[in-house]
Fold this protein.
Amino acid sequence: MRIFGLKNCDTCRKAAKALPEAELIDIREHPLPDALLARAHDTFGDALVNTRSTTWRGLDETVRAGAPLDLIRAHPALMKRPLIEDDDTLYLGWTPQVQAALLSV
């Protein structure tokens, strides 16, 4: 299991603490592979971009209008976090539903 996020993100740290067998990968240091990023976008669509983030608010309108995958590649902190890969299944966020799915095993 791999958790893609930011090592200084509270939500990512909570997920990593609850899932001690998972590897936390900081997407600023190790950007998401293009295939995984495309798969996540196919799975979650525009929900993959965190439009409530400080990074998003700091972008001007012309940049915000860019393609979601290009935005995440240029600004990794724009990705909603964490993105959790468990075998072939992807989970986005650390919601009660994600926690129930991953912690009930």
